[in-house]
Amino acid sequence: MKETMVPSPANLRILLSTATDQLRRAGIESPQREARLLAAHAAGTDLAGLLRIDALTGAAHATFSQILTRRLNHEPMAYITGQAGFWSLDLATSPATLIPRADSETLIEAVLHHLPDRTQALRVLDIGTGTGCLLLAILAEYPHATGIGTDINPHAARLAADNAARNGLGARCATLCCNWAEAVRGPFDLVLSNPPYIPHTDLAGLMPDVVAHEPARALDGGPDGLVAYRALAAALPTLLAPGGTSVLELGIGQDHSVPALMRASGLEVVETRPDLGGIGRALVVKK
């Protein structure tokens, strides 16, 4: 019988110090915190639980070494751990979808501001749903709402459905694999979308974590970054109910060009809401 080689015990303090130095040299932001997060994941605990651990041994030590190498290669933490937080949700992640980001929570804030009655039985559509983060956050805030999420990637559509079940929202939503909204029929009271909006020539300049690991199809907005918005502008007048609201995520510098496309389709531009960095992030339009 072949003997299994078990890594020797590793003092956690020394392990974290070494990993922090390696992550810093690799250009990883917050290297100390990331080293601790990796160690906690390897040990099957959280940051509080890590305080009770003196050493990583056996499988935990081997796992830590493997996932540290992945992070040094700029694989996003959310893909390594397989989960990410968004709004009040705990979401599973995979390389089939973009990682939910805090900037996108600006869209949820915009919806809550413009549709303040939480008792509404909204019919919601999320185009390009990815993890389902936008749709599920809205369903969590509006207990009588129902929704549909669409995604062209079948793995993303499956992940969104799994996340709905994971957060106890599966009974109020469905996910469909289709191109944009081709498989659905309105009217919807609320249409959400975080479409691809990075101009094609700008993709190579993104952070290594993004350009090397997140799905290009979910990032590439075509030559000018506006291809998806043109499709949305054409579809929204049919998808929205009279008086219905759409909230779209914008990229940097798109807070003039995208509203112009929406106005040209006969939609009323209500607001462009900035994120915490002051960037116009959530465009609110109405039919």
UniProtKB/TrEMBL annotation:
<feature type="domain" description="Release factor glutamine methyltransferase N-terminal">
    <location>
        <begin position="15"/>
        <end position="82"/>
    </location>
</feature>
<feature type="binding site">
    <location>
        <position position="194"/>
    </location>
    <ligand>
        <name>S-adenosyl-L-methionine</name>
    </ligand>
</feature>
<keyword id="KW-0949">S-adenosyl-L-methionine</keyword>
<comment type="similarity">
    <text>Belongs to the protein N5-glutamine methyltransferase family. PrmC subfamily.</text>
</comment>
<keyword id="KW-0808">Transferase</keyword>
<comment type="function">
    <text>Methylates the class 1 translation termination release factors RF1/PrfA and RF2/PrfB on the glutamine residue of the universally conserved GGQ motif.</text>
</comment>
<feature type="domain" description="Methyltransferase small">
    <location>
        <begin position="110"/>
        <end position="202"/>
    </location>
</feature>
<feature type="binding site">
    <location>
        <position position="151"/>
    </location>
    <ligand>
        <name>S-adenosyl-L-methionine</name>
    </ligand>
</feature>
<dbReference type="InterPro" id="IPR002052">
    <property type="entry name" value="DNA_methylase_N6_adenine_CS"/>
</dbReference>
<feature type="binding site">
    <location>
        <begin position="128"/>
        <end position="132"/>
    </location>
    <ligand>
        <name>S-adenosyl-L-methionine</name>
    </ligand>
</feature>
<dbReference type="InterPro" id="IPR040758">
    <property type="entry name" value="PrmC_N"/>
</dbReference>
<dbReference type="InterPro" id="IPR029063">
    <property type="entry name" value="SAM-dependent_MTases_sf"/>
</dbReference>
<dbReference type="GO" id="GO:0102559">
    <property type="term" value="F:peptide chain release factor N(5)-glutamine methyltransferase activity"/>
</dbReference>
<dbReference type="GO" id="GO:0032259">
    <property type="term" value="P:methylation"/>
</dbReference>
<dbReference type="InterPro" id="IPR004556">
    <property type="entry name" value="HemK-like"/>
</dbReference>
<keyword id="KW-0489">Methyltransferase</keyword>
<dbReference type="Pfam" id="PF05175">
    <property type="entry name" value="MTS"/>
</dbReference>
<protein>
    <recommendedName>
        <fullName>Release factor glutamine methyltransferase</fullName>
        <ecNumber>2.1.1.297</ecNumber>
    </recommendedName>
</protein>
<feature type="binding site">
    <location>
        <begin position="194"/>
        <end position="197"/>
    </location>
    <ligand>
        <name>substrate</name>
    </ligand>
</feature>
<dbReference type="InterPro" id="IPR007848">
    <property type="entry name" value="Small_mtfrase_dom"/>
</dbReference>
<feature type="binding site">
    <location>
        <position position="180"/>
    </location>
    <ligand>
        <name>S-adenosyl-L-methionine</name>
    </ligand>
</feature>
<dbReference type="InterPro" id="IPR019874">
    <property type="entry name" value="RF_methyltr_PrmC"/>
</dbReference>
<dbReference type="InterPro" id="IPR050320">
    <property type="entry name" value="N5-glutamine_MTase"/>
</dbReference>
<dbReference type="Pfam" id="PF17827">
    <property type="entry name" value="PrmC_N"/>
</dbReference>
